[in-house]
Amino acid sequence: MKHTYSLASALAATFSLTLAQGSTPSIPTCGPNQPCGSSTPCCSQYGQCGVGAYCLGGCDPRYSFDLDSCVAAPMCQNADYKLNSLDDVQQNNIYLGDASTANWVSSGTPVVYNGDSILLTMAPSTVGTLLMSTHYVWYGQISATLTTSQGAGVVTAFILMSDVHDEIDFEFVGVDLEHAQSNYYFQGITDYDNEQNLTVSNTVSNTHTYMIDWQPDSLTWYIDGVAMRTKNRNETWNATTSQYHYPQSPSRVQLSLWPAGLEKNGQGTIDWSGGLVDWNSAYMQNGYYYANVQEVKVECYNPPQGFANNHGNKAYYYDSTFGTNDTVCTGNNNTVLASFFATGDDPKTDPNASSNTKTAGASSASASATPQTVPGVSGGGNAGNAGSDTSSGSAGNSGANGGNNPGVSGSSGTSQGGGSTQFSQGDSQGSTSSSTAAPGKKVAGSALAFVGFVVGCLVI
Ligand SMILES: *[C@@H]1O[C@H](CO)[C@@H](O)[C@H](O)[C@H]1NC(C)=O
Ligand SMILES: *[C@@H]1O[C@H](CO)[C@@H](O)[C@H](O)[C@H]1NC(C)=O
Ligand SMILES: *[C@@H]1O[C@H](CO)[C@@H](O)[C@H](O)[C@H]1NC(C)=O
Ligand SMILES: *[C@@H]1O[C@H](CO)[C@@H](O)[C@H](O)[C@H]1NC(C)=O
Ligand SMILES: *[C@@H]1O[C@H](CO)[C@@H](O)[C@H](O)[C@H]1NC(C)=O
Ligand SMILES: *[C@@H]1O[C@H](CO)[C@@H](O)[C@H](O)[C@H]1NC(C)=O
Asked: Region Disordered: start and end of each range (predicted)?
């Protein structure tokens, strides 16, 4: 009767469904007993192999080529992020792992609102917006101050997600504004009893602060400073696997607005979210659904008592594919790739290195190689965000990042059977005029985005 869906599993399902239906190049897949090969060593959170951004946040060490393929994860930093500009946000087709250049990575179209907050937007033919912290958290207090979106099929989320799919959630379905859904997962294993509704006053009209207090032994969800639910690790023992099914690995903070109510999604996901999205809804403004995020605070806890894998203080990595708490290490590892063709195994690879600067933050992929470089983005040339919401006045990361719509519409349809010649992230960088060439706003850069792209094509 009751079903809950982790953001991750809903997205993954969404993504693979879409892949099955769309005309897409065959991207190598990865999963249990099926790790990525050496040429595309990094297994993305969507279960596909690639290089570049595939090896950054979300790269799953369990199914990647080896334990060095995924780049080590920038360590937790205490912070009070006032989300009032996009200066601290880099698109996922720009970010190469240097967390000192941006605290947030985005896919989709975040929009500055009133100079004091950021809107996560979701326009027709898009799959919404996702903000991901570049620094990971391995236990801590994490809060987000926000208002949600509303309407059938529209989901707002504030979650912690690890690279091995541990997850701690606040999720808001747009047909129930009086509840926040709290949930948690261990390594993506679905357990329908983990979800619990927390009562809250109207999440659209009232700004609330949602906080996750994540300790090695207990997990508490707070709303406006009031503890609403606690889960102890010792209550999560799974006798089948002889493990605590408790979130225990370094995680990124993620804020998102996404359309669970798309026909392409599983019926369970659609039902959970209250039905199909109405793209002519009165809840939309300026042509999009929106959730408003004002502030995110992170207070890092020390590594747990008895932690023996302390080799430095810059980054997290794993020393085994088990992905459990005792396999987490801290080190002084490099976290930066030289280009979108680099990997954790070969972080300095840069097609332009001989003739050009090596500045990681500025480089982007060249046109000559074939592997996928930004997860959730398929086909040739559609590397990331194409959505430039010119009406929003927040062009900070649209024009600047190069709209890639021509690449998107041109190459995905023509397909390239496993990526022949035309993957061209660098190429399309120049085409900043592209956003005007495409009817409707398209967003790419995540599984969500990919769905949006396909939907966009159908609409067109
Ligand atoms: C991190 O650094 C340690 C120590 O040098 C090394 O053993 C490990 O392979 C590195 N891991 C990653 C993912 O960089
Ligand atoms: C939480 O509320 C939603 C409706 O908003 C409902 O579908 C779901 O079953 C509830 N979950 C639990 C565990 O009661
Ligand atoms: C479970 O863990 C909690 C929090 O650490 C602790 O207070 C409680 O005593 C533990 N219960 C059992 C049965 O060990
Ligand atoms: C225990 O873990 C197994 C394997 O992951 C899973 O199928 C099962 O649902 C879990 N049992 C409980 C009670 O959570
Ligand atoms: C990992 O979790 C186990 C319980 O599953 C605990 O006994 C151990 O202390 C933890 N180790 C670390 C390093 O957190
Ligand atoms: C390589 O340099 C060319 C010419 O400057 C540029 O168009 C392309 O985007 C660059 N590629 C990378 C990977 O930086």
From this structure: 345-439
* Distance set, CA 18 to CA 11, 12, 165 (Å): 10, 10, 21
3-state DSSP assignment of residue 457 = helix
Give the residue numbers spanning the domain of 252: 74-300
**Helix, strand, coil percentages, rounded to 5, for the chain:** 15, 30, 55
**Ligand nearest the Cα atom of residue 428:** 6
Task: State residue 351's pLDDT score.
Answer: 87
With CA atoms as reference, report the closest residue to 362 among 102, 106, 131, 96: 96
- Do residues 321 and 330 make contact, with C-beta atoms less than 8 angstroms apart? no
Q: Give the pLDDT confidence score for residue 100 in this predicted structure.
A: 97
Q: Is the CB of 352 under 6 A from ligand 6?
A: yes
Residues with CB under 6 A from ligand 3: 217-218, 232, 234
Which atom of ligand 1 lies at the shortest distance from residue 68's CA?
13
Task: Pick the residue whose CA is nearest to atom 7 on ligand 3.
Answer: 232
Q: How far is CA 71 from CA 29, 67, 138, 364, 375, in A?
A: 19, 9, 17, 17, 15
pLDDT (0 to 100) of residue 459:
30
Q: What is the pLDDT of residue 9?
A: 55
Catalytic residue among 171, 195, 295, 299: 171
Token pair 């590397």 is at which residue? 383
Burial class (CB in 10 A: 0-12, 13-18, 19+), 352: middle
Regions of the chain with pLDDT less than 50: 1-5, 13-23, 356-369, 378-460
- The pLDDT of residue 450 is 32
What is the percentage of the chain residues whose pLDDT exceeds 90?
A: 69
Does residue 415 lie in a domain region? no
Point out which residues pair with 291 in neighbouring strands. 120
Looking at residue 280, which CATH number applies to its domain?
Answer: 2.60.120.200
Number of residues that this document lists for the chain = 460
For residue 381, the model assigns a pLDDT of 27
Q: Please check whether residue 139 lies inside any domain of the structure.
A: yes
SS3 at position 328: strand
Q: Which residues' Cβ are closer than 6 Å to ligand 4?
A: 189, 191, 238, 240-241, 245
Residue 339 domain-assigned (yes or no): no
What is the pLDDT, as a whole number, of residue 305?
A: 87
pLDDT of residue 55: 98
Cα–Cα distances in Å, from 328 out to 78, 98, 304, 313, 439?
20, 21, 11, 13, 46
Asked if the structure places residue 180 within a domain, the reply is yes
- According to DSSP, the residues that pair with 43 across neighbouring strands are 49
Q: Active-site residue 167, yes or no?
A: yes
